[in-house]
Amino acid sequence: MKIAFTSELPNRGKVGREHHNMRTEFAWMCKLDAEHYPIDAGASIQNYDLVIVILPKGLVFKNAVGVRMHEDQQNPISDFLTYDFIKMLKSNNKKVAYMQEGPCWLFNDYDIKEQIGFYNQLSQTDMILAHNKSDVKFYKGLFPGKKVFDMRTLMITDNVEDMNGPKLDKTIIGGNFARWYGGFQSFTVASHFRNQVYTQTSHAMMQDEARIQELEHLPRMNWTEWMRTLSTFKYAVHLMPTVAAGTFSLNCAYWGIPCIGNQKVDTQRICFPDLSVENDDVEKAVELAVKLRDEENFRNDVSEKAKEFYKKEYSEDVWFKNFMRNYEQ
After folding, report:
1. In this structure, are residues 264 and 242 in contact, taking their beta carbons and an 8 Å threshold?
2. Which tens digits make up the pLDDT trace of 25-50?
3. Distance between CA 142 and CA 136 in Å, rounded?
4. Tens-digit pLDDT profile for residues 231-269
5. 287 exposure class (CB count in 10 Å sphere: 0-12, 13-18, 19+)
6. How many whole angstroms separate alpha carbon 181 and alpha carbon 241?
7. Domain 168-314 classified CATH 3.40.50.720?
8. CATH number, domain 3-151, options 3.30.450, 3.30.160, 3.40.50, 3.90.1070
9. Distance between CA atoms of 184 and 173, rounded to whole angstroms?
């Protein structure tokens, strides 16, 4: 089967297994031997059996209660919502799929015209590929009768298989102190391990976040560097309320690092069933942190289970079989 991806990424061509920034979208392209095209090259994407479209997240202008936060700007995603972008791809290829980017509800923060445009574009697709089982239900409700299935998060691990470092007494949290990541809650829970807490540096890092002495920020790094660094952590906490691809939990499962996180995220719930909590259940997360800290047998059991669940549910061969079975049904 001949497959193409198109997204806001600027590169064109295939992704080799040696790629050092093997984030999940690159892993998908690699495993499917797919060609990637920048999204503004849509007219040149022709004669594929399947084109998978990852639309840009776009800019949002409102906070959670609908208050406008800054002056209007041109939303870059609007260019793909105001003309028949999907219909154009379908005219040149056999099938077109939309691949979820970010949480399923993200388009709710667009202006009304763009919300309707987003919905209309997805309605034109042959199928929708979602991150989690809960996302599948969301899209099936919006588009009754449309083919929707979960395309699981994937790791191509060639570059990191020999990088498992010693587990040092330190904790990693899965994001900065923004609502998107829930970093404040994760940091509060992580403090119960009574060791040094680390987080990543991202676009969501708050202005004064670096002033927190008990929190150390890792520098920006590519995926291979990140995995090498992650392998040395003993614990992880990721109380991210935003349900998306779940790469953090999956990365931790690969190394057997116990990760406390949101049960609505498939990678978390499947790989860490004993450490998954309801969204905002910080009390339960604290109880689990204390149990991991004080009960070595529990910690070891969670670690070994995570590695087993990763191999059983998320290894390359399993991922490919799941994708092909869902695609062909």
Report:
1. no
2. 999 999 999 999 999 998 899 999 99
3. 10
4. 999 999 999 999 999 999 999 999 999 999 999 999 999
5. middle
6. 7
7. no
8. 3.40.50
9. 10
